[in-house]
Amino acid sequence: MRTNTWRINIVKKPSINTVTVKNLVNFLLILAAILLIITALNFRSLSKHAIENQALAHAELVRASLTAHMKGGIMDKRDYYMEEIKSLHQINRLRVIRSQEVIKQFGKGRDDENIADALVTKVLETGKHLFESKEWSYTPSMRAIIPYIASSKGRLNCLGCHKVAEGAVLGVVDIELDISGYRNHSLYVLAGMTLLSLLFLVLIILNTRRTINNYVQTPLETLIDHAMEAYRKHTPVCLEQFKTREFTNVAHEINLFNADVIAHQEMLKEKNRELIALNDEIESTLRETIYTMGIIEEQRSKDTNNHTRRVMLFSQLLAQKSGLSENDIDLVTAASPLHDIGKLGIPDSILLKPGRFTDEEYRLMQNHTNIGFSMLKHSEREILKAAGVIALQHHEAWDGSGYPQGLKGEEIHIFSRIVALADVFDALHTKRIYKEAWELDKVVAWISEQRGKHFDPALVDLFLQNLEEFVAISNRYNNDAPDSALNGNGPVPAGD
Ligand SMILES: [Fe+2]
Ligand SMILES: [Fe+2]
Predict the structure, then answer these.
(1) Which CATH number is associated with domain 17-186?
(2) Considering the domain 279-476, what is its CATH architecture?
(3) How far is the CA of 64 from the centre of ligand 2 (A)?
(4) 0.70 exceeded by pTM
(5) Cα–Cα distance list, 298 to 210, 342, 344, 367, 406 (Å)
(6) How far is ligand 1, taken at its centre, from the CA of residue 368, in Å?
(7) Nearest ligand, CA of residue 346?
(8) CB 3.0 to 4.6 Å from 460: which of 106, 251, 451, 469, for a disulfide?
(9) Nearest ligand for residue 308 CA
(10) Where are the domains of the chain?
(11) pLDDT tens for each residue of 367-381
(12) Based on the number of CB atoms within 10 Å of its own CB, is 374 exposed (0-12), middle (13-18) or buried (19 or more)?
């Protein structure tokens, strides 16, 4: 019968739920990371652009205001204006730096108006504005440096005052904004987005896990359990418990398959019963045939009535007492009736001769052992093979003085040793046409005397220890008991 071993072996493997959730987590984490990086880069770019524009707007406002001061002839008020601008929120530093042409013409001005660092110098040289960002600093800032270009066009003609060429850079406005607010805001937004993404991720995972659990894993495990149950108890799987069409269909197919298996099993059981009955019939027929052959031989030899039956029962009893296996007990019991089957090949003139045999007649008579073996040796049936060995060896003696091969001790098959003792005990203890029955004491004395000579000493010991049982069989199936070939007192079944 099938067991759950296969389930025990796979118990360490991950479930569908685990594998799916693991893969989903990996996928979503990568997706979330990519989206967050793209968003962060984009957001940073937009923020930076906005800050740059703000810085640029502040610088241009300053430049325009200074131009207005110049036009209004109130340049002496510009310091006040500059200080006011500087005091505005988010402006760290604000200054105007003169070009060398302006310094030559109007002097160095205030201390901070002639200090040009690398960026300022570059703007003075190129006339193009520049930005410098320090967004990862502890005090993040954005610096904008815009040129003041000399122009004769427009409402203010710069060249009217400045002795420079058209398009020359008169100076720069250098403004630095505090962008910590922007940066912190950006970080807060990014942190919020990350948290929202993680929350969304968790919700997706929980929902996926619940869906797979409800619609795949649990129904699948239920299906497996019920399929096993159906296999063991032949009960159908209940279709109503499955929520989806696919599992219901699979359960239905299992039920159909199971019904087929049950039908086949029943058919096989019936066939098996028929085969067992047929085999029993064949076995029984074989045993009865063997027994009947023994009776036929017994009748032809004009042997004592019931000799075959008694030898069979004595052999069975000795085999049991010897501790042989059930199969061996059965074999020696079933095969013993054929021990003298070879006598069918002995002429009546010898077999039925009332007087003593001549030497030649005795030699011919002894040959019934070889004839019996020849009759049976070709069979592949266990019983007939055992019968062949018994027919050949049942006149062998423990000390090697027997015939036809003069075998000794355990060279003689145990079946043959058993039948030899059973056969001789019956021959001595019952009346024959050529002799009276010996008294039991005389029989016991003779058999005891033949212990280790004619007979296996161990078998003689067992025989003597259980003498009452042998005598009981002998009395029950004495010469006057009805012929027992196929009547209700037939052969004792194996192990009976
Ligand atoms: Fe014999
Ligand atoms: Fe016999």
Answers:
(1) 3.30.450.20
(2) Orthogonal Bundle (1.10)
(3) 147
(4) no
(5) 87, 11, 10, 17, 26
(6) 7
(7) 1
(8) 451
(9) 2
(10) 17-186, 279-476
(11) 999 999 999 999 999
(12) middle
